[in-house]
Specification:
four-stranded mixed beta sheet; Nucleotidyltransferase, domain 5; alpha/beta; 38% helix
Length: 308
């Protein structure tokens, strides 16, 4: 069975793995991104760690790399990855030259959705949304049984976190006010609780646990986050009519404490729309690497389907 190298480059960690073509992990590790060193240093780390994996696993036939932000999947370019400091970086070409292997390139969330589609909670589902809720929020949209998530004309489809759910609200890092990310992301939940209580170092999961334990401030912030997420998902459901909504990311680890109020809020909002199943993602933080591996495998299985 073919072996591929996979890299999931994030703002905090670079996750690396060697996987069989069906996504079965053979080896996995992670390294701190340390984006504070600058964009060139981050790229050098990605290239060096990929080379280490290729040296340790010389049978690897291809590599896949996925990154956050705005990407041009056809040209293999990171158009803008604010957390990495990347702008117009030809990641695929540089990595291919460094490794001497064919390299597939993609968006981290769409790759995670691809992994859930083939080996996780979206398996055997032709129409679903993959929505990871972590430091940020995005979505991968799969329709009609397509093997690829929608990208849009400019590679910017699925930016659910920047749907305005609270007009005139808190300023978002994108420049708008009241985006979903300012209310329902894990970072927003933690930040809003710290601001309200002056207690710092509390995570979004801590807020959820305190809400369940009767902390009224935590309960209010958690409830508002679920309501805001339901507002944005109502728009997405109305547009795409999915059969399933797969919630991933750090917030999904709250399980039914996240899913139950979200289901209830959606049921209140949806009228003529069919109410999709809302389920937890199955692959956790492995989804990005697994998706990168599937992209690499597709290069070998269907090279004619991938632009050079």
């Amino acid at each position: 069975m073919m072996t591929v190298i996979a890299l999931d480059v994030g703002g905090t960690f670079i996750k690396g793995a060697v996987l069989a073509g069906d996504g079965t992990p053979i080896h996995a590790e992670r390294w701190y991104t340390r984006a504070d060193r600058g964009p060139d240093a981050v790229l050098e780390t990605v290239l060096a760690r990929a080379a280490e994996l290729a040296e340790r696993f010389p049978a690897a036939e291809a590599a896949g790399v996925v990154v956050p932000g705005i990407v041009d999947e056809d040209d293999g370019v990171s158009v803008l990855a604010a957390n990495l400091g990347w702008r117009g970086v030809p990641v695929r070409n540089w990595l291919a030259e460094h490794l001497g292997l064919p390299v597939a390139f993609g968006h981290d969330v769409r790759a995670g959705g691809l992994a859930e589609a083939r080996a996780g909670a979206g398996r055997d589902c032709a129409d679903f949304l993959f929505v990871p809720v972590g430091t940020g929020i995005a979505a991968a949209v799969f329709t009609g049984g397509s093997a690829r998530a929608l990208t849009g004309r400019h590679g910017r489809a699925g930016e659910l976190g920047h749907v305005v759910v609270r007009p005139g609200g808190e300023r978002c890092r994108c420049g708008a006010r009241g985006c979903l990310e300012t209310v329902a992301s894990a970072s927003a939940v933690a930040r809003r609780y710290a601001r309200a209580t002056r207690r710092h170092g509390v995570t979004a999961r801590d807020v959820q646990c305190r809400a369940q334990a009767g902390d009224e401030v935590a309960a209010s912030i958690w409830s508002d986050a679920m309501e805001a997420l339901a507002d944005a998902l109502t728009t997405a459901i109305t547009l795409y009519d999915p059969d399933r909504v797969v919630i991933g990311g750090g917030l999904s680890r709250a399980g039914e404490a996240c899913l139950a109020p979200l289901r209830a809020a959606l049921a209140e909002r949806l009228t003529f729309q069919a109410v999709p199943r809302v389920v937890e993602a199955r692959l956790g933080d492995r989804a990005g690497c697994m998706g990168a591996a599937f992209l690499a495998r597709d290069l070998l299985v269907r090279p004619e389907a991938v632009s050079p």
